[in-house]
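In this notation, each integer encodes one residue's backbone shape. One such record reads:

___
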Amino acid sequence: MLNALEVITTVLVGLMVGVEFSVAFVMNPIFNALPDDSYLLARAHGGRMLGAVMPFWYIGSLVLAAVWAVAGWHHHGTGLVVTAAALLIVSVIMSVLLLVPINNQSKTWTPDNRPADWREQGNRWDRFHYARVAVIAAAFTLLVAAL
């Protein structure tokens, strides 16, 4: 049973890293190349779509890592799993404090109601997101090492 938990947790965290990596280094650069109105609408739509799914994915990954750490407490690699869970906690805190507030505003923007600093806010979100991708990638690496 522990082996299944380890594999499921690692795969789910790995997929999350892949999605967030794709947002940072594939989708957002594509959106950035669009004309302003199209860029704004694409980012707003992405914020709505991923904003509805990612909270469950982040919290679910954290819960699975915590269960793995508890269930495998006396097994090899538990320290790596605990550290990965701590990094996932950091990613949730970063999300709630830094990224979600910007996302909640930007997902409602249209060409008619965007604020004057909408590009700067998008760039700020991107910078925070790069850091979050690094944090969850490190967590994933630790989970893989703990297998």
